[in-house]
């Protein structure tokens, strides 16, 4: 049984009209065509809900959050350069490569786990600075770059775990696995990100690297990435353009207070020393040990990254969670 990925909540999402007009994938996929990459997520969302584990309308599927992120990257120019042809994701886009590890890599894992049908992943049509997967389907075995092999295997294990679930089961254990694999995917090719970073400002590169570091905080809280949750949280804190070297993180006039605060927090993660980051993450993981704390993750994140007199009560509660009180 394959679920149709058209829940009613789509009408409230910016990507809804694009989603409903996506092409149907055949025997092959061009992952550098934006609409086909979106369609890859549709394939994952449809095929991963065979047992109805993600709700009556598939609205609780984890991959909706990935669609939100991809659409945001596309509409804010993070996937292209002035030279990129229309509707294409640039081979040397730092953001595009990062998304590839969270879209095509899991798709290959899903194919290997028998969750989604086999199809060929087309290679780039020209040389670039990054290595990508090719093959599969009628083309034979997948050719997987060394840096992506561990992540493909991890996603395959994720989908095998997913196949053991039934409608009504608690999704949090699988969500913890999702975030572990998510982090492994993004963290596998840090040298590639460095090669692709030259076309971006330092602020944008630091925002990207902080975006990766934030995974450890979100994953420790089993942050929800389903359509219901994403529709209510997190979409109004993302910058609607590329950051420049002239921007002052947290004080950019054409960004809302919420966006400024988020940009400042994310860039701040990158600019923290490794020692300080490790200590802060350890404390955060202690706070997130209980389901009650994880259910309050939004206010706990605000207390952690934006301490103020207004959230003093929440900061005390965060301390109690850290101490196990």
Give the proportion of residues in helices: 40-55%
Shape assignment: globular
Lateral arrangement of strands in the main beta sheet: 1-2
- The number of strands is 4
Structural class: mainly alpha
Instruction: Determine the number of helices (DSSP H or I, runs of at least 4 residues).
Output: 15
DSSP strand content: under 5%
Task: Outline the structure in words.
- With 325 residues, the protein is mostly helical.
- It has a domain at 8-200.
- The chain is 52% helix and 2% strand.
- It is built from 15 helices and four strands.
- The chain has helices at 16-20, 34-47, 64-75, 94-101, 104-112, 146-162, 172-187, 190-196, 202-220, 227-232, 257-271, 274-287, 291-295, 297-305, 312-323, and strands at residues 28-29, 120-121, 134-135, 142-143.
- The strands form two sheets. Strands 1-2 form a two-stranded parallel sheet.
- Helix 2 packs antiparallel against helix 3, helix 6 packs antiparallel against helix 7 and helix 14 packs across helix 15 (312-323).
- The mean pLDDT is 95.
Question: Can you tag this structure with a few keywords?
Answer:
globular, two-stranded parallel sheet, mainly alpha, single chain, 325 residues
Give the SSE layout.
Elements: H1 16-20, E1 28-29, H2 34-47, H3 64-75, H4 94-101, H5 104-112, E2 120-121, E3 134-135, E4 142-143, H6 146-162, H7 172-187, H8 190-196, H9 202-220, H10 227-232, H11 257-271, H12 274-287, H13 291-295, H14 297-305, H15 312-323
Parallel strand pairs: 1-2
Antiparallel strand pairs: 3-4
Helix pairs in contact: 2-3, 2-5, 5-6, 6-7, 7-9, 9-11, 12-15, 14-15
